[in-house]
Amino acid sequence: MNKPIRITVADDDPGILDAVGMMLEMEGYIVNATLNGNTILTSQNELPDVYVLDIWMSGSDGRELCKKLKSEERTKHIPVILISASNDLKYSAEIAGADDFLAKPFEIDMLLSKIEKALLN
After folding, report:
1. What does the domain layout of the chain look like in residue ranges?
2. Which positions fall inside the Response regulatory domain (predicted)?
3. Which residues pair with 84 in a beta bridge?
4. pTM for the complete prediction?
5. Most Cβ neighbours (<10 Å): which of 2, 6, 27, 62?
6. Sign for the pseudo-dihedral over CA of 110, 113, 119, 120
7. Does domain 6-59+67-120 correspond to CATH entry 3.40.50.2300?
């Protein structure tokens, strides 16, 4: 039996966080959702299989979080998908080491396909 896939989602918009979390749970994922991206760096819980991080969050920047995750031995192998309301940030997401980028607003199917792609790599 396969273990369930864990996804950590960080976004400072409670509406987006709730909607994305609910849709991912309906797809069978275990979701850890947080309004404060900085908590993912200090979390001692079981590591996720994928991170989905908003780029612009109050108190933290998804690109900086991505760089930190990619520089740490225990998290550098975990795919990071950055999301943002600005499509102009795709390049800076790549510079930060993100595995993928998604512009808001997005269809949940698009996010699901990016998560599936990230899990295959």
Report:
1. 6-59+67-120
2. 6-119
3. 103
4. 0.92
5. 62
6. negative
7. yes
